[in-house]
């Protein structure tokens, strides 16, 4: 299988020269788009939408029909893996994801096993295949997973948390139990991402949303080492093409050099770090992805354009090593026209910087 017609995103991840800085947005298929809300309403609820390959394909393509984006990202949820482990995922209206059976008991943790992605997560694999066919080699498809520590936060807490007292209690009281959860989850993520690659994903991303809540020593032990293990276990090539890997720890600027060292091709940055400073710190080791504050998109189009130019100017000259993105997922309240201004500015201004 040859590269997509627009392979700018893949070239940037592999540190090959590009004519402009490619752009995609975390959570680009989402509630800020009226067409997404209409499809979600038809699905009945969020989980039905995730578990219908046809609808997941439909919403994956919606932002690409509206904007000139350089990549599609599989529409799914990071919690599909713990759901497939039998924890009973459900979404309470207005309250976010919850698990019926959070991992608190030693016997349940010891019984935990990695699900077969082609069996328990077949609907995700079918969605990847369907999206890849529908894209018709126009732009690359990104597959993804949550990091083991981030997934464990939900698995132990049973829902989102403001203080993580259950998982951190386990981390300090019974680190052996938490390592058991993380180890099984890391194995699950490796097989899950490799299955996505087998079904057509052309790059993969690991979302470590809650790794930044850890202490310095705990981050290395409970998050980073498991992401290193995943990166080492990923399929690196399919049909003669390299499959790049992006790692993103929110609030992870403190550990930038360590993340860049785990073997990934790109490091995602949140908006709290200056991208030029990040580039100075990691050199040419990895591509950097980021890192506009998503809340900039609530400003007018001129401000959005000015702030996007600041990120590009801060990254500095050169035609390699940058994928433009937000520093976290796009807000559901974002005006769709702000995204138009962002996409147009990134493409036009980055072209000027290469002259």
Summary?
By secondary structure, the protein is an alpha/beta fold.
How would you describe this protein?
The protein is built from 15 helices and eleven strands. The chain has a single domain, classed as TIM Barrel, CATH 3.20.20. α8 (148-157) packs across α10 (175-199). The longest helix is centred in the middle third of the chain and has 25 residues, at 175-199. Helices cover 48% and strands 11% of the residues. The strands form three sheets. The chain has a seven-stranded parallel sheet. Strands 2-3 form a two-stranded antiparallel ribbon. Strands 6-7 form a two-stranded antiparallel sheet. The protein is an alpha/beta fold and 355 residues long.
Present the secondary structure layout.
Elements: H1 8-13, H2 34-43, H3 46-51, H4 53-66, E1 72-73, H5 80-87, E2 89-92, E3 96-99, H6 106-110, H7 122-135, E4 141-146, H8 148-157, H9 165-173, H10 175-199, E5 203-208, H11 216-233, E6 237-238, E7 241-242, E8 245-249, H12 256-260, E9 266-268, H13 275-282, E10 287-289, H14 301-315, E11 322-323, H15 336-353
Parallel strand pairs: 1-4, 4-5, 5-8, 8-9, 9-10, 10-11
Antiparallel strand pairs: 2-3, 6-7
Which terms summarize this structure?
15 helices; single chain; TIM Barrel; globular; alpha/beta
CATH topology: TIM Barrel
Let me know the number of strands. Answer: 11
**Contiguous uncertain segments of 5+ residues:** none
CATH class annotation: Alpha Beta
CATH architecture assignment: Alpha-Beta Barrel
**Nearest-angstrom radius of gyration?**
19 Å
Number of domains: 1
Beta-strand proportion: 5-15%
Distance between the termini: 32 Å
Q: How do the SSEs run, as a string of H and E?
A: HHHHEHEEHHEHHHEHEEEHEHEHEH
* Strand line-up across the major sheet: 1-4-5-8-9-10-11
**What would the principal axes of the Cα set say about the shape?**
globular
The largest sheet, given as strand count, sense and whether it forms a barrel, is: 7 strands, parallel
Going by helix content, strand content and strand pairing, the class is alpha/beta
Tally of alpha and pi helices: 15
Kindly state the mean pLDDT as a whole number? 96
Helix content: 40-55%
